[in-house]
Amino acid sequence: MAEARRLGRTGEPAAALVVARRLAEVSTDRSIRLAALLRVAWHSLQLGEASTGLAAAVAARRLAEELGEADRRAAAQSLTAWLLLEVGLTDEAYLEADAAVALAESDGEPLTLAHALNGKGMALLYSQHPDLAEHHFRWAVKVAAEIDDESSLSLFLSNLAYAFADLADARERAGDFDGAAAHRNLAVDLGTAAIDTARRSGDGWMLRLALTNTAEYLGLQGQLAMARTLLAQWPATPGTPGVRETVHHLYTDGELRMREGDLDGARQACRQAFELAEATGHTDHQMNSLRRLAEIAEKAGDLAAALHDFKRYHDTYRRNEGEQARRRAQAAEIHFESQHHRAEAERLAAEVLRDPLTGIANRRALEQQLQAMTDGPHSIAIVDIDHFKAINDTHSHMLGDEVLRQVSRLLDAAPATLAARLGGEEFALLFAGDAGDAGAICEAVRRGIEDHDWSRLAPGLAVTVSIGVATAKAGEPEAALARADRRLYAAKSAGRNRVVADDAVNEARAAG
Prior knowledge:
Layout: H1 2-8, H2 13-26, H3 30-47, H4 50-67, H5 70-86, H6 90-107, H7 110-126, H8 130-147, H9 150-173, H10 177-201, H11 204-221, H12 224-232, H13 243-260, H14 263-280, H15 283-299, H16 303-335, H17 340-351, E1 361-362, H18 363-372, E2 378-385, H19 388-395, H20 397-412, E3 418-423, E4 426-432, H21 435-451, E5 465-472, H22 477-493, E6 499-500, H23 503-511
Parallel strand pairs: 1-3, 5-6
Antiparallel strand pairs: 2-4, 2-5, 3-4
Helix pairs in contact: 1-2, 2-3, 3-4, 3-5, 4-5, 4-16, 5-6, 5-7, 6-7, 6-17, 7-8, 7-9, 8-9, 9-10, 9-11, 10-11, 11-12, 11-13, 12-13, 13-14, 13-15, 14-15, 15-16, 19-20, 22-23
């Protein structure tokens, strides 16, 4: 396992796949076999061998279920999602990725959660939702940075850059050329960060990916010299490039040469890409090479050659459609061979929207609701139980848990869109409407908690809460959360057991 991991992290995915596949075949230790299957799935994805990878990912998921290893099951599901994308099963991929995120949030390690978020981001990207994909990639980047995993961080940065490149294309199609340029600049900046991170990690596969993608973005910006500088570094990267990587590099080189005016060089690069794809039987690579060759011939004014290459492209396209249909059928057979996996994933996804201690919604449910509230303003309140540590220390953690449950019930009874536990003694209330109504409701909630008969739990027990409230405009939930959090701290600084619903009150009290 150590050797497979070392090869995978130093740019040798093909060699790593050989080792992992052999280990999965011969190991009698089911935990080691599970780890090997996950590596087979990942390295197959890197090399473009989707069917092999999908079979390994599904086997890994089943074994993780048998062993009761929720973290590895989430890892298997996120790999399954990405591999389903490779064969065109986008809807199924999204459901797998969403279930992987839910499971990883509930029972997974931080790195598993980051990869699950990345898988969901890819599913959204393939579904033409780069704006939603961007959010998930950002989250994955944050998690990977916090745990200092530079190899994974490079991958997530590359995919975040890809999302911004897609957003730039959408802006350009809409005629917003300034917006397109700004998004392409972000793609280049993030791609450059991915290159630096991959170089520090020593992961040649990640470095080759980041170099090629960023060179493409620079080429689209017209920064040809900088793009050429990056592409020139590709051959010296650590490890041995696979067919997929090599074809991608040749495509990019050909497109860059075309922009530079070197049509002969562009034609030669794309022909090399076609010959390599033809020799390895990858019809999708052949198709992409022929399309570029037709474009180059047209740009050179050789219309006969352009027509010839386009006819070959069309024939290959038809052949590729048949191959894709075969791949999809094979993938569907592998993926759906046991229907209970999907039912179990859906059940688990529903369960992890609830907080297990209090039974009300959890942070994930709140985030989903916030994402859905895009049509108008809404308000968010953050509620914190005052001096909760003292309650635990004085009366016991068991009584503290009961306080959390009773506060949850009081919050859940409020006329709010959603009541959720964020963690510890912190809760949130979500309202459709403005801060004035929300502030009045929160004041009633505060009084209700203060007046509740807590002596039934322990003589002399008193419970109060501090609340910060903020209104969000459409599309700015994170900024509103930050304001609500700031106002919560203003409420606590002003003596606790109060509601702060605007910054003017905060500033007046600070001045006083």
